[in-house]
Amino acid sequence: MSCCLMQLMESISQNQKIERLVGLEKILVQGLTTNTGPSSYSIILQTLKDDLSKPEQQRQLKLMDYVILLVHIYSLAGNDVFYGKEEKDRTHKLIGKEILNESLFTNDLRQEMKTLGYSLEIEHALDVIYQQLDLLLSYKRRYKYLNSLIVDGHDEQPNYRQSLLKQILDLFKLYGNLGSSPSTVQQEQLMHDIEHVPFDGLTDFFRSAARGLFGDTKPNLISNDYSTIVIFIAGGITSHEIQLVQQYSQQIKKQIIIGSSGIMKAKDVLSVLLN
After folding, report:
1. Cα distance between residue 80 and residue 33, in whole Å
2. For residues 119 and 100, is the Cβ–Cβ distance under 8 A?
3. Which residue blocks in the chain are alpha helix, DSSP H?
4. Is 95 helix (H, G, I), strand (E, B) or coil?
5. DSSP class of 155
6. Torsions phi, psi of 153, nearest 5?
7. Greatest Cα pair distance in the chain
């Protein structure tokens, strides 16, 4: 009986943690789309300070949760998260200091980096994270259509986050219907973003020649003349993305083959950024 009660309490605690993370994530997304009020980065830090002032038993979120939130928000908006260089430098040092105060987090980071966990190594780890996210931001700027993970809302629906995979699947579903077709501008932007760019070689030469022979110079990714879609997600795929692809496959009644380098969990994000 006591074992069942303990499992129930752990389940309730986990649900409360998830609810708080989801609520906090929505607030942060709204903070990215307005210049009034505190920045999303400041919200994370203030919430972190409030949590650290409580006894450890009363904290719903761990420092690792906050760092993952930071990585998530930074990947959405890049330097737009910060109001200026001074705020970025100040919050950068504060996060590093708080990491050193968290023994469990510091030990995990030591194991990842195979270092002693001194403050300079922690600073270096944060620098590496920001460099990787800046690189991600530079790639996102190359997109013309799929260049934002935040969807503008309206009076009844606030702004919300939507993954790149979800956006692509929605476009396939929308423009794959007979009664719907993108405008010329949308078509050009869409093809610019998701057109396969071939590498040099005989295979690509014959592929391009075949397209030209049949009068199609570019692959039409939103036509209905395909029976199988192959999707490969580099770096790892989450269980939510797998479920999303399965649901989409049932909706369009086409086979979807999905591949990736592995199953990714939230805690794996830092490992990827530090490698």
Report:
1. 10
2. yes
3. 2-32, 40-52, 63-77, 85-101, 103-113, 119-140, 164-175, 184-194, 202-213, 239-252, 268-274
4. helix
5. S
6. -95, -155
7. 73
* pLDDT one-digit tens code per residue, 172-229: 777 655 445 556 666 666 666 765 444 444 454 445 544 444 444 454 555 555 677 7
Specify the 3-state DSSP secondary structure of 104: helix
What pTM does this model have? 0.58
- Measure the CA–CA gap between 80 and 255, rounded to whole angstroms: 39
Other beta carbons within 10 angstroms of residue 64's beta carbon come to 18
Residues 6+ apart with CB under 8 A from 237: 258, 260, 262, 263, 264
Give the Å distances, CA to CA, from 180 to 28, 64, 143, 193, 222: 34, 44, 23, 20, 11
Token pair listed for 8: 């129930």
Locate 135 and state its tokens.
């690189």
Spatial distance between the Cα atoms of 265 and 240, rounded to a whole number of angstroms? 10
